[in-house]
Design a protein that fits this description.
Radius of gyration: 16 Å
Helix content: 10-25%
Structural class: alpha/beta
Number of strands: 9
Order of helices and strands: HHEEHEHEHEEEEE
Shape: globular
Largest sheet: 7 strands, mixed
Length: 203
């Protein structure tokens, strides 16, 4: 599958123009190991080293859709890996938005900084994301890109009122994507989408 075929497939699945435009603008081949560049537009996860993967484009598109991103928003991704999703988020929120990535694995954090050096509105932290990123809170949107067995409670206070949190939750080989919205001091579940497999959240 090439880039145009992937975009056609995502369009046929009903994803919005702003998500399709982001996928069109960002070169996935820049975020995968050199030996996998020929496979960059397959709709499948690919290994990026350190036991981690770059998620399947369809899965990313689902999560971005549920985040309901807007221009100018402040967004946090935990488990930002090679930086591909950060780039997509940046394209959607625009230059007036701010995007923060937290990646615990130093080699991936370093690589993602290199991958994203041309993006002025993205900042990456090499640390555990289990407690979020309090020094930059609050956020309009929070995305967790690795599977959690439990909801990291620290994230509640870092999400703005009415803000949206998207994360995969469940045991090792079967998770559902859960969409939460902050209403006062509770996370209200808006949606559950079953049938996904993510790498485990590294604490």
């Amino acid at each position: 599958m090439n880039k145009q075929q992937l975009l056609k497939s995502l369009k046929e699945m009903g994803f919005s123009k702003k998500i399709l435009d982001a996928f069109s603008s960002v070169k996935r081949e820049d975020f995968v190991p050199s030996e996998l560049k020929d496979n960059a537009y397959e709709d499948t996860p690919l290994p990026i080293g350190s036991g981690q993967t770059i998620s399947q484009p369809y899965t990313i598109a689902v999560m971005l859709s549920e985040l309901d991103l807007k221009k100018g928003q402040k967004v946090l991704e935990l488990g930002s890996g090679c930086g591909y999703v950060l780039a997509l988020i940046s394209e959607i929120v625009g230059n007036e938005g701010n995007v923060f990535g937290v990646e615990i694995l130093s080699e991936l954090a370093k690589k993602s900084k290199e991958n994203l050096e041309n993006y002025n509105n993205i900042k990456i932290y090499n640390k555990s994301g289990f407690h979020g990123l309090s020094e930059q809170a609050p956020f309009d949107r929070i995305l967790v890109s690795a599977a959690c067995r439990e909801l990291p409670e620290a994230l509640l206070g870092q999400l703005k009122e009415g803000g949206i949190l998207v994360l995969p939750k469940g045991p090792r080989f079967e998770q559902e994507i859960i969409v939460f919205q902050r209403k006062g001091n509770v996370f209200e579940i808006k949606k559950k989408i079953p049938g996904f497999i993510f790498v485990p959240f590294v604490e």
